[in-house]
Amino acid sequence: MSIIQVENLSFKYSSSEKWAIHDISFTIEEGEFCAIIGSNESGKTSICNAIRGFIPHFYKGEYKGNVLVKGKNILESTIGELALEIGFVFQNPFTQISGVGETVYQELCFGLENIGFPKDKIEQRVNDIISITNIQSLVNQNPFELSGGQQQRVALASILVMDPDILIFDEPTSQLDPQSTEEIFLIIYALKKQGKTIILVEHKIELIAEYADRIILVENGEVALSGSTELILSDPILEKYNVPIPQYAELFHKIKERGIEVPFIPITEDKSINLLFSLLSKAKEGSECP
Ligand SMILES: Nc1ncnc2c1ncn2[C@@H]1O[C@H](COP(=O)(O)OP(=O)(O)OP(=O)(O)O)[C@@H](O)[C@H]1O
Question: Which pTM does this prediction carry?
Answer without folding.
Answer: 0.91
